[in-house]
Amino acid sequence: MIGYVTLGTNDLARAGAFYDALLTELKATRVMEMDGFIAWGNSPTSPMLSVIRPYDKNPATFGNGTMIALLADSRATVDRVYRKAIELGAKDEGPAGPRSDTYYAGYFRDLDGNKLNVFYSGN
Predict the structure, then answer these.
(1) Does the chain have fewer CB atoms within 10 Å around its N or its C terminus?
(2) How far is CA 114 from the centre of its chain?
(3) 60: in domain
């Protein structure tokens, strides 16, 4: 159902480098790029995450209560992606770990303050 999610950035090169390194952990690569916009996915037709400089030329800001959740294929992948995010300069918003019997997640904010979660649901 979701085609793509877009996050605003004030520094496209910095955001691009952050997500290039982070999303590699989820086997995603750049699938689309234009002036002021980069998108990552597992294919051009899969759901994508993108960053963009705001069209209205105003500074990008993050939304309070807004969060993007990235699906992982295992708890080990959650741990790896969360560690990579922190290594890349993301801010901890809740370390990777169990949240219930079947939900395992780690929370962080990217370099522009956007909140993300990497999660695995299952045993």
Answers:
(1) N
(2) 9
(3) no
